[in-house]
Amino acid sequence: MKLNRRLLTLGWALALGVGVVTNLPTAQAQNLQRVEQGGAVMVEGGGYCTVGFNEPSRRRSLVAAHCGPDGARVRIVDHNARVASPQLGTLYRSKAYDGRLGNDWAAIQWDAPVQIGGNRFSGDAWVNPNTIAVGERVCYFGQTSNRPTGAPTCGRFGGAEGNTFFVEAPMTRPGDSGGPLWIPGRGFVGVVSSQWVAQKVPLLGSRDLVVGVHATDGPRVAESRLLGLYAQNLMMPASGSAVGPAADAVRGAVTDGFSALAGFLPGVVNYS
Fold it and tell me: Residue span of the signal peptide, if any (predicted)?
């Protein structure tokens, strides 16, 4: 399953991808009842997603809210052996999830038999995206993109609006949703939410970005602000050399300017 929501006027699209469900044989519960960060899960009524963060003390794992409907039952998947567990958990979406990018995170509450592993990629510490410098190195791991090699994909932090943030990195693929985004040596930043995919715009060009969400509830972020953040990345990419307070001030001005423009042109950020 791949869901597309398009920003019409300037040709941007948000792609939220969960892996396509195929029929897998059910493994014996005792053979597949441990969940690891970066592991695969299958959500009833949704599809395949990647585990973003484990909280053993709360017996839960964090993923993306769009991985499936609220209250859906969840199976643990071993793609290498092509088997799935019986239903062993329940997905609970953020109560603040707006069906788009706002608060696109969820918790899987695991049943008693499930063993909950640690966080081998990010470590247990959390990093608020609003404390990260533009250009800082950020990595992600998704079942589709990274399982075959076991190596993460890394890029550069592109800024945040509320708990939604952009990363300039190779695009995620269906099945990577929910996977961990982290700063090496610092900690977990959020879960993979979607892609900001852009057609080329005259005079400005285009830039595709991975979208992440910090897995705590925050206020809804206006789409005009996200458009402004995108414009900032288009004109002053995170992989460029512009750093420091002066560059940050220019980035802020770009974000504010394009956000204001979007406010006067509602069609720029309309979804279909």
Answer: 1-29
